[in-house]
Write a structure and sequence with these properties.
Length: 298
């Protein structure tokens, strides 16, 4: 293991882990056992102005460490990588492959990728997530007036056809081997809700990235939903009861913002923070945490 590459990462496994901090009990009816809330405190080394920074990172401007992982559990993705680095379906029914017929290479060198959404996938406000949302997302990322850096790997994308509410066909002008990663966050695109953003986009394109949606008003389709966004302090995420893969076992995540590395390290060592996501700690910081006797995954 190379020390220069050490960093603690936060995985989607959080959605299915048990509580690692003392649970908080809320009072119940007389004679009934108290309700135990399972929650943990998470930290990122940065102070994000909003979740839109991860979108603009595709232009090469960088982003707040840990924001990408936070976005992943808030917004969800069509696919994700499991612990063995194998791509698995999340909001999509299947990962497109040549073998299952969802990835077609045409005789003239073009190709088509078909996405089928899982039945019952909804945004966190209860609105169905449809193939129109996929097409809307592509349109937003391609609009140069909005100010979002267009992912370079979308240059070969010719368009997207919606064949029914659950099906979208992406058409490519040439072979692109990572096409199955599209709509899976990171270096491509995060899914955007058309029913929430289309109107504000048409009314005020210049103010699109300043909408409350990117902070306290965020609505995604992931395992956790936004309850509070306090600039300069933290954001609070709560379990999404309608998540298509099932409700997370954790009830709440508090994501605290740190701008000083040493303060963050002290919070981890004291137990005030249970999980650090993203990057920013030095190799010697990781060794300090390990030598403290805490059980840390690196």
């Amino acid at each position: 293991m190379k020390l220069g590459a050490l960093y603690v990462i936060f995985l989607l496994a959080l959605a299915v882990t048990a509580c690692v901090t003392p649970p908080q009990a809320s009072s119940g009816a007389s004679g009934q056992a108290p309700i135990v809330k399972k929650q943990i405190v998470v930290a990122i080394l940065g102070d994000p102005a909003g979740l839109h920074q991860e979108m603009t990172a595709t232009s090469g401007n960088g982003t707040v460490p840990g924001l990408q992982e936070t976005y992943q559990i808030l917004d969800g993705a069509l696919t994700h990588l499991d612990a063995d680095e194998v791509r698995q379906p999340e909001l999509a029914e299947a990962v497109p492959t040549v073998e299952n017929g969802l990835w077609k290479v045409l005789p003239d060198g073009r190709m088509e990728l078909t996405w089928h959404l899982k039945p019952g996938v909804t945004w966190q406000d209860g609105t169905p997530l449809t193939a129109d949302d996929l097409r809307f997302t592509v349109d937003v990322y391609r609009d140069k007036e909005i100010g979002i850096g267009k992912p370079s790997n979308l240059a070969a994308l010719d368009g997207i056809d919606v064949t029914d509410p659950q099906t979208a066909v992406m058409k490519w002008t040439k072979i692109y081997t990572d096409a199955d990663q599209v709509f899976s966050g990171s270096k491509t695109m995060w899914l955007l809700p058309k029913h929430i953003l289309e109107g504000p986009l048409q009314d005020n394109k210049e103010g699109f990235l300043g909408l409350p949606y990117w902070r306290e008003g965020f609505v995604g389709a992931g395992a956790f939903a936004m309850r509070e966004f306090a600039s300069g302090s933290h954001m609070t995420l709560v379990a999404n009861d309608s998540f298509v893969l099932g409700r997370p076992r954790l009830d709440e995540l508090e994501v605290r913002f740190f701008t000083d590395r040493r303060t963050l390290l002290a919070s981890i060592l004291s137990g005030a923070v249970q999980t650090f996501i993203g990057h920013g700690l030095y190799p010697e910081d990781i060794l300090t945490i390990q030598n403290s006797g805490q059980d840390v995954r690196v």
